[in-house]
Amino acid sequence: MFELYKKRELGECIADTFGFFKHFGKHFFKIFFVINGGFLLLTGELIYWFISMQDLSAGNLQSNNPNTVFNTSNGNFPLFIGLLIVLMIIVIVLSLFNAGYPVIYLKLIEQNKNSNFSIEEVIKAFKQNALKIIKFSTGMIFIVVPVLMIAIVLMFLLCFIVVGIPLLIISLPAFFTLVNLSFYSYLTEDKGFFESFNHAYALLKQNFWNTIGTTFLMMLMVQMVQASVTMVMYFFVFFVFLISAVGNSNFETAPFEGSPFFIALVSLLFVFIFALSYILNNLLMINQGIIYYSLEADEKTSTRDIELIGTDNE
Description:
It is built from nine helices and no strands. By secondary structure, the protein is mainly alpha-helical. The protein has one domain. α5 runs antiparallel to α6. The radius of gyration is 24 Å and the shape is globular.
């Protein structure tokens, strides 16, 4: 039985993150792909139409004017804008769902003590928390992000006197963890926006070095995997593009018209990158959840110990 509320050290936090996917991975990703699958396919289709509408002639590709390259064919500018708006809406919906999904899933695990809940229950829980996710995202964009950006810029400037380098290495995972612990606290407990950040700050201080060490290692692993896979995919598509270009003997004078296969391949690449980023984000967010429940267990244990001390004195 997988236990959420358990005190963990650095190695245990990482091991239990992968242990979570060993126990619940099949059920977790089944729901993930069922809900995301349709949106991702629609995203791929929209990207396919975007690419198909562009004038990718050799002269335009060699031009330094981006307006020349991205000219919609047949003057379908209103259609282009309409599809772009639809794509933006889909990306926003996907981002909101995938931000809240790991938090909601762990909350349902804790409530049910197992993974015997359906896709409908996940969707229902997301609908119940959708407004809170939007509120938290809005607060992040307009309140937290500007403050964090100022702090990060100052630390980058301090890098010129060396002191900023270790400070930056420590601060980035600390900021990342603080935000995610606040998000978990905001959705899991009945707390307000600022109250959640205060609670997250208190949790972070409990076991600071263990917590940011876990986050730093997980971020490093995720970035390495994402960069490696994405780079391989980019090189593969670029290789296909070169073969298509070389195969066109009149490439210097005639327009380069990407074949439906090539356009579909590029569209699939974008969908794959979207899906990969969401999957790896789930890995990070589940890790943050493991940290959250671990720190909550630590806090509950400390509170219980204090109460016991008071009982012993009596």
